Here is the input.
Amino acid sequence: MRILRIELRRSAALLVGVGIVVSSSMLLFGMLASPWNNGLDSWRTQWTTLAMKPRYLLLFILPFVLAIGAWQGGRDRRSSVDELLATTARPVHVRVRPVVTAMALGAGVSWLLVLAIGAVLVASATSYVNSGWVSTAAVGVLALVATVLLGLGIGRAVPSMLTPPILGVLGLVAMVLLTDASVHDSAVALLAPGFAGLRTVDVFHQVTARVDTAQTIWFASLAATGVALLVLKGRRRLVAVLPAVVGTAVTLSLLPPTMADALVADANAAELVCAEGTPRVCLTRAHASQLPAFAGPARRALTLLASLPQPPTAVEEVPTSIDAKARPDVIVVRDLRLSDTLLSGAGTAPCEHVADYENDSIARIVAGSWFLGTLTLPPKFYPDEMPLAEQAWAAFRALPQDQQRARIIAARQAWLTCTGDRYAILMNGKP
Amino acid sequence: MRPLLLHLRAYGVPAAFAAVVASAVLFDVLFKDPNPRVAALAIALAVAAASTSLAPPDPELERTTAVRWPRRRAVHLVAMAVVVIGLFVNVDFVVRVSVGLTGLAALGVSAFGARLGWAMPAAWAGLTLLFPLPPTVPVSDVWNWMLQETTAGTLTAVVLGVAGLATYALNSARTASLTSV
Here is the structure.
């Protein structure tokens, strides 16, 4: 125990631990929270995304953990005390136990700390829990511990000063190549700990148990290789390659052929949960914690739309990863962050494959603002488009009242069927 | 000649040079049609391996020798950059990438010692490749200097190279690493 405490203080375990916590926090709250990565909400609102998104950081962190492990592994040889320590009357596996424990603790506890910080944020943001996230997050911890053990083993086997830089950059090369492989939709990319190629990382999809198992076997085999390299001596070190080879073979046979097969839809999360009373306002179970705050504005929107000839009578959420048919009797909510725009497009969902996206979104804003009486912009609106939106709104409001209403109804029909040029309908009267 | 050979051996230059040559050969053999990402990483590997030769095992002791160290260190660093450029001469923009990465390595060695100095070029390369900034962000030209041919990027590489050369030549490497050994 005393030796363990000394090792924790004196070895690179503190460096690994502090480095992981600091760099992860900076990347999680900086890079992964940036506007082009869909902001902080992309990972901190659900347990599933907390398990999956921070693992992308491991693609950057693992090579450096590997290198620092290698540096630590070469410590005895560099200080020329390896022969001295070998003369002690303790077997090798007892001698290396403190440093192995210290480094594993440094790597594992730091990642658990990062996850704990995220867990505090997630716990206050959602009420939906599905137990699949625990195994996905645990694979991340295992990946770090396995990499540091592998680094220790390689560092002890090849205690040169060149080992850490070569391992570090080669690790980066491996991560980048595996990430690029995921672009071609190959499951080999799952040998890396991050989910770089998956298009839908959200609460409505979970990693399959098969992929979790395969990745666990892969990282466990790497850990076994590292420990074997630490404990075996001389030519017997070649045996240490065996766990890695077997592990690779087993993992590749278990992994699914395409990245899309790595996810399974979480039906429980997509189930609709409705607020009390009428008219019907329903959100998915994953977002059920926002239902009380959402019901009021949703019912107000339904009241405002009641003047239409065939007004919608309910509000339902459909997850963005699922295709939704247009339904005239229901306002379909796709993305809760834009819930202020329930009225946009006169209560319709946006169409895919739009010829002129800018004009169509301005048309949707004009159509929604008509029911409110004043131009109301959604939260995520590009400031450069403001003058265009104001112009379109002024031009539309200059028309006679019955013409405005006729055009709104015609444009709503066009959005429901996804035909015609809705901007032209509103501005010129003809599609 | 003999003092030069002893000097190089003390700095670990033969092993580092072998590693640099091996990385260039492997890159040529494995990647017939490289994209800029892999090329940047290959040059980063060569620079990282070479950066271990930028300091002797005991910099404090060497500093007491009455020799013009700034000039020697500057020649060493420039020679390292020239060797890397020469071995990767078929890569697009090799001069820019090599100069920038060598400067970063020199900065890293000055700050963290020869054992950890490689972490700086490796970290920037990793961040650029794994966390790209979209072109709409103003600082993306500077961030992606390794991958794109822009004026801001070239300027960044030059600034890094010059800053690294100045810092390393005037300061040498830090003696103790971050932990005891």
In short: The CA atoms of residues 275 and 293 of chain A lie 10 Å apart.
